[in-house]
Every structure is written in structure tokens, then in C-alpha cells.
Write a structure and sequence with these properties.
The protein is built from 3 helices and 2 strands; from the N terminus they run H-E-H-E-H. The chain has a two-stranded antiparallel ribbon with strand order 1-2. With 74 residues, it is mainly alpha-helical. The radius of gyration is 14 Å and the shape is globular.
Length: 74
């Protein structure tokens, strides 16, 4: 993701989810349940639907924590 998007509400968040999936994949992280939260998608009005990160194994959680630590410079 080379450009930062604004935080405007949007109904179509599939591109954002794909970018997150790709960024996680660079670090060997796979969140199998990553997708659009169906309940917030169905009730979308003033607020955009939420991204469902879903469940993951402890190994995946550790990889995610390590990637975030490295990105933060530590």
C-alpha cells in the first residue's frame, strides 16, 4: 500500500481487505476468516461495515505481534 487513503466511510471495503491480506502475507501471516463482517454490512447506514479479522492460531497471533513490533521499530 503506497498511498494512504482517507477515512471516509465506504460501502465497498473488499479492496481494503485484499490489501490487508496481502500485507499480512508478506510476513507469512494468514487470517483464514478475514473478510467483511456480515452483520455490519447488512445494517450499514452512517457507519461503514467492519472488517472481520476472525480467529487464528497462537502461532499466527505470535507472527502478527512480531510483525507489528518490527513495524513499530522494536
Amino acid at each position: 500500500m503506497d498511498e494512504i487513503r482517507d477515512d471516509s466511510p465506504t460501502y465497498d471495503i473488499v479492496e481494503d481487505i485484499d490489501e490487508l491480506r496481502a500485507a499480512l502475507g508478506v510476513h507469512g501471516i494468514v487470517l483464514p476468516s478475514l473478510g467483511v463482517d456480515p452483520l455490519t454490512l447488512a445494517g450499514w447506514s452512517k457507519h461503514p461495515p467492519l472488517v472481520a479479522l476472525g480467529n487464528c492460531t497462537v502461532v499466527t497471533a505470535r507472527r502478527l505481534a512480531e510483525a507489528l513490533r518490527l513495524a513499530a521499530g522494536g
